[in-house]
User: Fold this.
Amino acid sequence: MALCLTALAGAAQVKAAPLKVEIYNPGEKGAFPVSSEIISGKSEVLLVDAQFRRSDAEALVDRLKATGKILTAIYISQSDPDFYFGLDTVTAAFPGVKVLATPQTVSAIRANKDAKLAYWGPMLKDQAPRALIVPQAIAGESLRIDGEVVKIVGLDGPSPDRTALWIPSERTIVGGVVVFAGSHVWMADTQTPSARKAWIAELDRIIALKPRRVVPGHFIPGADDANALSVQSVKFTRDYVQAFDEEAARASDAALLIAAMKSRYPSLPGEPVLEMSAKVAKGEMKWP
Assistant:
């Protein structure tokens, strides 16, 4: 009996500690309210996305060092520069750390990184990256933190360059660029009806997981966290993408599309995002 109790006690001791998710998001102080996440286990941490401006990447480094844990990898969920421009700052602080992304995200970053820097560099000035870091392609469909599995959502879907992460043990979705909350949604990278329908399907897949907590890739912290950090943000994004798709099909130009979306979402902040998205959707502006 004593031997049995000892074995049970030993099993309890080796049981993995719950994973914790800390959010860094500069909110209205940043160029974009983009989220990075520090997922922590007992002794290891995983960083998801690396910020846009150098100063925000430096703040992220301070958060990582404050954990006192080993940064085992950085996962980049999307090829937009606000998710990876900060990589040079973070990797300089943690030499040798692995930077990972899906093969499709890696390809997209390689294809557009120079054009993105040419566009954003003059605006960012000293906040721009001093070097562009390209992730290596991840092998497999998951990552591990102290033995706990973190699954990549979207690898087998139509847009494997735009992924989210699912932490089964915590029933938490780290949404990446596919989830927004509380502002107009950036639609310029999904320029066709088929791309928008694929996005809606991905959001439905996330909803089906029944997450307890959701971290949107873009949101304003503190504005409405009860909804922003729940499945409501996924439903909001899905409904917005559906509305944009419907109105884009009806509108003959960007001005009419903007007016229609403002009518549906009269108090939503982020109108410059809507304006650019509408111009791209109606062929009045080329992006990227």
